[in-house]
Amino acid sequence: MVLHGRDDRETDAEVEAAGVAGFVTSVNALTLDGKALPLQPIDTGAYDVISEPGSFYDTAVGVATGPIRTALRANVVFLHPLTLGDQVIEGAVSFVGDGSSAGVQRHVQRARRLSTFTRGAAAARRS
After folding, report:
1. Distance between CA 50 and CA 68 in Å, rounded?
2. Number of domains forming the structure of the chain
């Protein structure tokens, strides 16, 4: 995810272009149980936020506090319903330029959920 805040001299097109230009990675991957998932970059277009002291925009992005115009580019992945059991989702990203990187691993367990109908039928049998 790359955010870019503008100063008063930048147009929306320049803010959006800066967000895209900052989204250059040397590592950019997401896997589910070791299988690569397709990542799709999306752009929000320019929008307004209020950057408060100590907020993400103030501390991480480094833009001024107060009303700012910004744009966002990020990867999105859609996961279809997971199969029953344990899955491992792993992600890694390393941005070119500032050298920042991040990695994450999550273990997910999908258990069988009883439908409302099934729970009602089970309760009726017990009574």
Report:
1. 6
2. 1
